[in-house]
Amino acid sequence: MTKKVYIETLGCQMNKSDSEKILGILETQGYKETTEREEADLLVMNTCSIRAASENKAFSHLGIWKKLKKTNPDIKICVCGCIAQQTKEKIFKRAPQVDLIFGTHNIEELPELIKQLEGEADCEQRLQDGGGEPSTGTPFKASNQVKVCSIRQTPYQTEETFYSRRQEGLSAWLPIIEGCDYFCTYCVVPYTRGRQRSRLPVDIIREAKEIISQGYKEITLLGQTVDSYGKDFGKPEITLSSLLRELNGLDGLMRIRFVTSHPADITDELIKTVAELDKVCEYFHLPMQSGSTEVLAKMKRPYTREEYLTLVNKIKKEIPDVAITSDFIAGFPGEKEEQFNETLSIIDEVGFDQCNVAAYSPRKQTPAAVWKDQISYEEKKRRHLVLFEKTKEATVKANEKYVGRVLQVLPDNYKEQSDEIILTGRTRNNKLTHFKGSKDLIGRHVDVEITEASIWCLKGRIKL
Ligand code: SAM
Ligand code: SF4
Known about the structure:
alpha/beta; five-stranded mixed barrel; 34% helix; binds S-adenosylmethionine; binds iron/sulfur cluster
């Protein structure tokens, strides 16, 4: 009988992509995805630990799931992702209802872990084996509940190729690089995701062909620092640019994007490649984090305010209509009012298309978490709000400049409104756009004349 799995994914696109892989693996174990958690046999929480708020969200969901398990004790609860990788003890302590925990380095081990959870594999045996590789977790029995836990410090080695159960639509994510080597002083990623590991071009191209054969039209290459791709191979000819050139040649693919870029890894060659290749979209997500050179140095970001500005100006000069989005942190330890004001002023100076802003959240294992010069909660909240308002203004301004222009949109969805079909898609530079049309335009490039702009989206009509 088919079993049902409900998955909740918190955090970044990398986690969403991991969830697709988890669903693909679970499908091979007889599970089918459900969007109704009440009818699930297995509940999976793919967690994020980038900020305290994301962690709290995970535990609040687990609280709700505990009630479901009370009504139906046969339901199994699984926690994976970044919190699992960092702290299994906290999970078993705060959420004893959890049956299975696995980390970010061993998703591929899932078939074996599921068998243990379902009592088909010998837990005692595995306890002695230790999994054959550094593992901080082992399966064990607590009361009459079988609990399974496997967290590895290094990636699980497997010859097998797992397929992902991708979300429906025209766009697919394709991870090309895992982990991060930068160790910014506020960030937990290198501890939860490990050091930088690029996938081989041959594996990426094979997966891209598979994605295209499934009917997807757009691929977004993923990595915490996607533009660092290939640096760990020590072969200067393998770069994000060389990969983009190969992907651009694949038949059937209409658009290629890549996120997230680190400002220090954007090369002239990459800018030239984006400008030249017809399928590569004019869009960079380029987190700056702070507008102050002093704060950037404390964050261990290897660029100054001026260098970031020079880079952005170069990108804008070489790539017409490029959209640049960013991330900023408000209230980093020791951030002075003048330094915060430098962040506000850089938003105007660059004219970002959109920015994600967050109040600094101290994270376990990171250097900045134990510094003495922490900013008070109230002040971080205030700066966060001021910054948020500032970035909203910038987005409206950036969107308004397209009113009266014709942009190419790839519609991927529609809704019926009165007697009309309203199509929704994205421009090449990633702006959500709505326009009247017919369903048969889905999956085709359409020239749209922009008539309205707001903070959320553009509206327009088909250019005849
Ligand atoms: N690799 C990207 C880069 O180079 O900036 C960022 C990836 S990180 C998963 C996403 C965003 O989370 C960061 O850009 C940063 O703004 C935010 N972030 C990370 N750690 C944070 C912390 N401790 N407090 C608040 N925001 C944080
Ligand atoms: Fe985190 Fe910095 Fe790596 Fe981005 S570059 S993932 S912010 S450590």
